[in-house]
Structure prediction request, 270 residues.
Amino acid sequence: MDDSQIKAQIGLIGGTGFYDFFEGRGEELEIETKFGRPSDKITIGEIAGKKVAFLPRHGKKHQIPPHKIPYRANIYALKELGVSRIIAPSAVGSLKQELMPGDFVICDQFVDRTKFRQDSFFDGPEVAHIEMANPYCFEARTIALEKAKELGIKAHPKGTVVVIEGPKFSTLAESLWFSKMGWDLVNMTQYPEVVLSSELGICYLNISLITDYDVGIYSSRKIEPVSIEQVLANFRQNTEKLKRYVSSIIENMPQQRSCDCLKKAERAII
Ligand SMILES: [Zn+2]
Prediction:
């Protein structure tokens, strides 16, 4: 794809509570891909001279549950627009006491506990085995952490997220197991987004926003469960902070990538 065909360089996938980014400005596109329609229309806008494609993961009205999100169509649509980096915020539960509601975590690992998702673009005859040792783009994570420091945002530099199928939450036994394994967060959407992006050579950065403690941690440590009103208030407040944070990350992304995300995708194809 040459530069004139690129409609957006950066993709932004909004999670729960994050349904709009350009506040009515921007050009809305309805896209159909060979993997179906994405979750909603994609809005193209500009941040600091960079073209950004915004897509709400659950749809603008939060009408698509985590296990029904058209993950392949979403990532493919962004690829077709020319996107080479994806920033993907998501709401998560905490599995550790020190990871507190309101904190951000820049994830570096995942554990896949999903069951029924289409998680590859390569179903044959073309075959690819993508490396997954370090799924999240190191360069993008570094920029995100630098910006958090500058802005005084509490962002933990790494974290392992367990991605469950949903839409149900974990049982007490599952949640305690995840915590005992030393894993940090629980979520329903990061997988397979990160893998699909990797297969297409797109850098993927996750910004996890902790909304509450998962069931195992508050029952075992005698922490009071957060009320739903508190979660929602926390959420609204943090969504505004998250938007400012995302804008400053975009502003600071260099034009050229110096990571190996593209090479990894090229190596994967047999
Ligand atoms: Zn990268």
The radius of gyration is 18 Å.
